[in-house]
Write a structure and sequence with these properties.
- By secondary structure, the chain is mainly alpha-helical.
- The chain is built from nine helices and no strands.
- The radius of gyration is 19 Å and the shape is globular.
């Protein structure tokens, strides 16, 4: 019953949030991509809980599930900006809350000793989706090159299908975490449109450069580890 309960909770939170945003001008037709997203996320979470045999959703996963509803709202708002640019301030506000909550679920997991691999993966996927959606919105304002920010992580995952050594675990890195966190902040600033266009372009380009450096560094580390593996075995 736990997987079904997780789906019900997740879909309920998404519908409730979309209904609230309707009062701020969100068009009903923009609900569709958000609800499709929520169905996919909740279904994947339910499948993961079933495979893990989890006895409960856990407090940290509840926080991440709520954050996933915010990401669904961002998807709806990004879709709606094509119809009503006036919803951009709401988009910026909701995205900012979603980014701020990123630090909450990890602390809850550690504070309640309920950290799991599933929870960490769930958190990471929600982060990646938020960055992808924000980069899509900013790309409509600044050019398709901004999409590289959201696409980098998915390109890395797809490359891992062909090159298994890319799927090896990496050691924790404060620099990588800082660069990853900066992407969302910069994209929200760009979406807000409060800075001059030139300065915004410089900020976004610097964020993309830092992200590229981070991924290239990780790829080099994994490649070096792969090359050293046979030597250690011999």
């Amino acid at each position: 019953m736990l997987p079904l309960r997780a789906v019900a909770v997740g879909m309920g939170e998404q519908v409730a949030l979309l209904a609230v945003l309707g009062a701020f001008g969100l068009g009903r037709w923009s609900w569709l991509p958000a609800l499709l997203y929520a169905a996919v996320v909740c279904g994947a979470l339910a499948a993961g809980l079933h495979r893990a045999g989890a006895p409960a959703l856990g407090p940290a996963n509840h926080v991440t599930l709520a954050r996933s509803a915010l990401v669904g709202a961002v998807i709806a708002l990004v879709t709606d900006t094509m119809r009503a640019p006036a919803t951009v301030p709401v988009l910026v506000t909701v995205a900012s809350v979603a980014l701020a909550m990123d630090a909450v679920d990890g602390r809850v997991a550690r504070g309640t000793a309920t950290a799991t691999r599933l929870g960490a993966r769930f958190d990471m996927e929600i982060d990646a989706l938020l960055i992808l959606v924000l980069s899509l919105h900013v790309a409509t304002l600044m050019g398709a090159w901004v999409l590289a920010i959201g696409a980098w992580r998915y390109a890395f995952v797809l490359a891992g299908v062909v090159l298994p050594w890319l799927r090896r675990p990496l050691p924790p890195s404060t620099a990588s975490k800082t660069v990853a966190a900066a992407q969302g902040v910069v994209l929200v600033v760009a979406a807000a449109g409060l800075l001059p266009r030139v300065l915004t372009t410089i900020l976004v380009a610097a964020a993309l450069a830092a992200l590229t450096w981070s991924f290239v560094r990780d790829i080099r580390r994994l490649h070096q580890d792969q090359a050293a593996g046979p030597k250690r075995r011999r």
